[in-house]
């Protein structure tokens, strides 16, 4: 039995009954309404996949009903039926959002085919809406995890610039989340309905990269057997994300400079200038200013891309975010792998905080996925981590190479952990104490003991605690 619900509206009782019965025999759940007002009441009370309505009815005609349904119930697709069909009316119906326009007399096989196709279209519309909602949820700024002071300041800046066409340069080590941030900017901008096109400039040799970006014409080089659309053209109306921009050759940098300035380019082997409407986001894990000084990156291109720089701090400088991110990844992979693992042991949390994370958030995610797969107990424990993570965390606690009294040996790693936690909280001592699971008085005493003073730029906020 089909689960699709259909609402049929017609003021002719004979036609209303015959169409309704025909569709019931096809296995659909069908409701009938003799007037539009009754149909609107039924739509308010329940969800329908398809509305099949006559055009010529008293009080409210089919076009007016179509307009109301598209505004109040956009998930319902509409088919209009009329005994006085014209091409103009059919065009108008489609413009207003109807999926089909049927003229009387109604043929059974024809209406069955139209209903089946319309329901298939409704299913695609629903799936697309669901996918868009998932994207919205994934790339919402509220769902980008981070309570570190530097990250909160960064998110505030990103929110302010997302819905502009300002060129953005994202810097940060590999694995810090540059691609995620670029996608979040796109999905929170007015270009969200347009394409998001990602190009890893370091993944292709320079000769192929130019063709990949700008496209080529037939015969431009050996093997160019047909015209090819480039990524710039594919991103028209949306956003293009150029990752590892520092790897572009000097020759390609010249063409990129022009493309960024004028949003124009020519295909490889072609002489026709094309203009596109694109928002540019670029990323690199290199210090471009040093690359300019070394002569490997053009100074004029540097100033063109350095309009709005955003820096993603490495995870080792965001100790306060490690627990949050680890908990998030634990929930994700526990659900994905069908396991019920609610938390980490306390020693496992300490190990994660003490490890230096050279691979940043990406390495943390891979570590948690591996731990969930290997875990035998109800909690993730230290032995579920790789030897590298276990060993790296142990190494972080080795202040010297010779034996010291235990209390003395633990002072340096304790000082380092407290300092990193304070930095990650913007030197908010209440937040730091909460993360360290100690009271604020104890934190004050330890700060005094280790000579940790609040930097001048954070003094005012600290005094207001």
Topology overview:
Elements: E1 5-9, H1 13-25, E2 29-33, H2 36-45, E3 50-54, H3 62-72, E4 77-82, H4 87-96, E5 100-103, H5 108-138, H6 149-161, E6 168-171, H7 178-187, E7 196-200, H8 206-214, H9 231-234, E8 239-243, H10 250-262, E9 264-266, E10 273-275, E11 279-284, H11 288-294, H12 299-305, E12 308-311, H13 319-336, E13 343-344, H14 346-354, H15 360-374, E14 379-380, H16 387-396, H17 406-409, H18 411-424, H19 429-436, H20 440-449, H21 456-463
Parallel strand pairs: 1-2, 1-3, 3-4, 4-5, 6-11, 6-12, 7-8, 8-11, 13-14
Antiparallel strand pairs: 9-10
Helix pairs in contact: 10-12, 13-15, 14-16, 18-19, 19-20
Tell me about this structure:
The chain is of the alpha/beta class and 465 residues long. The chain has four domains: 5-135, Response regulator (Rossmann fold), CATH 3.40.50; 141-311, 3-Layer(aba) Sandwich (Rossmann fold); 315-396, Helicase, Ruva Protein, domain 3 (Orthogonal Bundle), CATH 1.10.8.60; 403-465, Orthogonal Bundle (Arc Repressor Mutant, subunit A). It contains 21 helices and 14 strands. The strands form four sheets. Strands 2-1-3-4-5 form a five-stranded parallel β-sheet, sandwiched between helices. A five-stranded parallel β-sheet has the order 7-8-11-6-12. Strand 1 (5-9), helix 1 (13-25) and strand 2 (29-33) form a beta-alpha-beta unit. Helix 13 (319-336) packs across helix 15. The model is unreliable at 397-402 (pLDDT under 50).
